[in-house]
Amino acid sequence: MDTEQVLHMNHGMGDNSYANNSIIQKKVMKEAKPILEESIMSLYSIIQPQCLKVADLGCSSGPNTLQMVSNVIDIVDSTSRNMNLKPPVFQFFLNDLFENDFNNIFKSLPQFLETLEEKKGKKFGSCFINATPGTFYKRLFPDDSLHLVHSSFSLHWLSQAPKKLGNKENVHITSTSPAAMHKAYVEQFQKDFKQFLKLRSQELVPKGGMVLTLIGSDKTREFRTAWSLIGITLNDMVLENLIEEIKLESFNLPSYDPTIEEVKEVIEEEGSFTLQSLESVVLDWGAANINEGVENNNNKFDINMKAEFTTKFVRAALEPLLKAQFGEETMDQLFLRYKNKIVQLIMELEILEFPTHVISLVKNV
Ligand SMILES: C[S@@+](CC[C@H](N)C(=O)[O-])C[C@H]1O[C@@H](n2cnc3c(N)ncnc32)[C@H](O)[C@@H]1O
């Protein structure tokens, strides 16, 4: 299975769509906004382009995609005003893999641009929005053509999953995985992230900025990941002959959650960027804010609702990959069972958390 061809988030605006199940990713963007502000202010202290070129890599499709555009415009607008500069013209390049639901983004553009004009007034610089399909592990833009690269919640996806290495029942690293499996995942991450940095350093102008967020891990604390329960659920289905054993035996998820140290090591080794900041924020993947604007409060929602929320968040991201391997007909059953496992886990642990790394880099001259 070629990851590039099958990896994408659930399309459309339906109940299981990414667009309707990406509140956690929205929270991640909110957490990273102060870092984005710092990065743009520091870029503007050196370069004041007439046309600011920004790429969002792994943009997916849904409210978060254009929220990123809005955030950048607001920050640049206030930075330019503070510096008594005319706001630039904006050119955004929205990138994702070929199967991404770009049409859904395009359909929301007229409303977005109209609201932008109402908010900012006619004198505000124009905003051009382009789509750039393709993998961010290959070149996407000409040399020295971008001022800012943004990528939120995407870089934990690898270009391909490591081959199965004795982890028959699991589809991802767990605490019981063999050492060879850890090694294979780390090596794939190092190779991919190094390649990503090298390519972006070619595409960014000197002193261009990059703000990245990705799911991470922390060796000092054990976090239960959403992915590990998928393996357990699939294994149960194999035992009940609902899924062919061979299909589980040949499948690993193409995703790795690096530690802060692993991220730093690759940045230093690759050498094209200076690390401005790298911090980790711990977020709740077990029903953080089911309704927008409602503070996370464990008493407000019953466990069933929390498990439903978490299952939809995971389904929106993993269903296309799992469907390609295990068949569409198994998906409802898989996620029903998955939800029951989440109910048990919430009862055991109460809070399901994961660390997200927020990284700010500047390209060396
Ligand atoms: C969880 S979504 C995040 C989307 C959005 N940035 C947000 O914050 O809501 C991750 C996205 O990264 C994309 N992605 C994964 N690997 C990629 C690659 N190699 N090249 C481009 N996009 C990729 C996926 O298709 C998916 O749409």
Automatic annotation (TrEMBL):
Q: Does the keyword NADP apply?
A: no
UniProt keywords (A-Z) are:
Magnesium, Metal-binding, Methyltransferase, Transferase
Q: Does the keyword Transferase apply?
A: yes
Output the InterPro entries linked to this UniProt entry: MeTrfase_7 (IPR005299), MeTrfase_capping (IPR042086), SAM-dependent_MTases_sf (IPR029063)
Q: Which domain of life is it from?
A: Eukaryota
Pfam families per UniProt: Methyltransf_7 (PF03492)
What protein is this chain from? Uncharacterized protein
Organism expressing this protein natively: Stylosanthes scabra
